[in-house]
Design the sequence.
């Protein structure tokens, strides 16, 4: 069950719920920034979230198992509670995701860093999921304003951080190199 996720057990139920719904909200914010969350964006982000249940860093596998369970149903349910108007929806999602900042600061620095990285990676993948040729140059102007998740304060890499994905293209701030 989600209440005993290792590294997250000291959080309140509301804080943990906010972290668990964050990938859904990120998918909706970035994927529908142009007005519609299309089938390819939904399919790709669902596959990505599912892949994170067994990918590195291992400390986030259980977290993503909970997130991945019924992911597209969670997306649909969340969409029903958000404004239909794109700008109003984006403003509301921006506000909700900004609420992650104090929660991330309560986590172990390595978990917070890896979680932040995974959120930014998910946002980028949602942005390139449809459009472009072979998903190259697929980030629309509407998506580009959200793809770095500017409402979430970047989590700095801990000094003692050991990269579980040695050789990946991440810079010292935890953002993927372009």
Sequence:
């Amino acid at each position: 069950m989600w209440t005993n996720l290792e590294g997250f057990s000291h959080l309140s139920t509301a804080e943990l719920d906010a972290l668990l719904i964050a990938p859904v909200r990120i998918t909706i914010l970035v994927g529908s920034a142009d007005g519609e969350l299309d089938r390819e964006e939904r399919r790709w982000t669902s596959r990505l979230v599912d892949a994170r249940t067994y990918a590195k860093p291992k400390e986030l596998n259980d977290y993503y198992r909970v997130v991945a369970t019924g992911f597209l149903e969670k997306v649909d349910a969340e969409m029903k509670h958000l404004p239909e108007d794109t700008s109003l929806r984006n403003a509301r999602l921006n506000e909700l995701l900004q609420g992650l900042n104090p929660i991330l600061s309560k986590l172990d620095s390595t978990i917070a860093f890896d979680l932040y990285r995974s959120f930014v990676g998910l946002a980028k993948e949602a942005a390139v999921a449809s459009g472009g040729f072979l998903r190259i140059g697929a980030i629309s102007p509407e998506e580009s304003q959200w793809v770095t998740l500017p409402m979430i304060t970047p989590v700095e890499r801990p000094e003692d951080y050991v990269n579980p994905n040695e050789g990946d293209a991440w810079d010292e701030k935890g953002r993927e190199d372009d």
Summary: DSSP finds eight helices and no strands in the chain. The chain has a mean pLDDT of 86. The first helix runs from residue 13 to 31.
